[in-house]
Amino acid sequence: MNKKFYQHIFEKQQGVEAVPANEVIASWTLRLIHLLYPEKAEGSPASTDEVEQGFMFLEKELVRIFNATKACTQCDNTEKANQFFSSIPEMYRVLNTDIDAIFEGDPASRSKFEIVRAYPGFYAISFYRIAHALFDLDIPLLPRILTEYAHSKTGIDIHPAAEIGEHFCIDHGTGIVIGETSVIGNHVKIYQGVTLGALSVDKSMSFIKRHPTVEDHVIIYSGATILGGDSVIGHHSIIGGNVWLTKSVPPYSTVYHKSEVEVVDQKTKI
Questions:
Q1: DSSP E strands, the chain
Q2: What whole-number distance in Å separates Cα of residue 201 and Cα of residue 150?
Q3: Which of 149, 155, 46, 171 is nearest to 98 (CA)?
Q4: What pLDDT band is residue 187 in, cutting at 50, 70 and 90?
Q5: What confidence score (pLDDT) does residue 215 get?
Q6: DSSP-derived secondary structure for 150-209
Q7: pLDDT number for residue 19
Q8: Max CA-CA distance within the chain?
Q9: CA–CA separation, 245 and 38 (whole Å)
Q10: Which long-range contacts (CB under 8 A, 24 or more apart) does 80-83 make?
Q11: How many angstroms separate the CA atoms of 170 and 191, rounded?
Q12: In Å, what is the CA distance from 111 to each residue of 37, 71, 99, 161, 195?
């Protein structure tokens, strides 16, 4: 490689903002989750004061991250961080409903401790809940960094702008995609390989609803694909595995993919 190439790389680097590494931002998020759920960490806080000090430290850290990423150029980053931390009690309540949903929905789960410590679904949901709270405060970049980090760890891709209700259960989870304008109600259960996607990926559709709406008490089994902003899955419906949907279904529907499987007795061939 010649000096001209090196010069190009150098000049390009000079224009890059000094944004903290994704791992640094994710580390802050994990410390917040560990404070909320010490069962995910190695030890518990020694006192109420220690919990309070932990939150105060993380709030100061968030201000520094906001400043470094120019999160709020027209407002006070300290105030934005305070607004975020004011939302944590409600976020914590909703996360607890998610834990309940996973525990009640997975026959293999033995304890809520196990879900918090080991389940990729809860890992992805907790990162999403934090990212979504930041998104609601109009914080740029950070929400996407967080959900993409969780995506890299779990294979579960949830856009931070998606609206997801309480008691959300992800079982197994690998390969799930939940698009930006998806709306998911309460008590929804989704299995691995499910896609809530768009019919088109044309850039001109950036600011319109292009992902489905899933109403309350819906189960979507593995490999199902539901596309389009006008597609509404009515409440209390069941979407079977490998179903491909591009239109709405009414409440209390059961939708399944009809396949033909032939079983041949090998003995008859002998």
A1: 157-158, 163-164, 169-171, 177-178, 183-184, 189-191, 195-197, 213-214, 219-220, 225-227, 232-233, 238-239, 244-245, 254-255
A2: 23
A3: 171
A4: very high
A5: 98
A6: HHHHHS-EE-TT-EE-SS-EEES-TT-EE-TT-EE-SS-EEETT-EEE-S---GGGTTS-
A7: 81
A8: 80
A9: 41
A10: 80/137, 80/139, 83/137
A11: 6
A12: 14, 39, 10, 30, 28
DSSP code at position 238: E
Tell me the whole-structure pTM to 2 decimals.
0.91
Q: Which amino acid is at 19?
A: V
Dist CA 141 CA 103 (whole Å):
32
162-257, CATH topology level: UDP N-Acetylglucosamine Acyltransferase; domain 1 (2.160.10)
Q: Per the CATH hierarchy, to which homologous superfamily does domain 17-155 belong?
A: serine acetyltransferase, domain 1 (1.10.3130.10)
Could you read off the pLDDT of 136-184 as tens digits, one per residue? 999 989 999 999 999 999 999 999 999 999 999 999 999 999 999 999 9
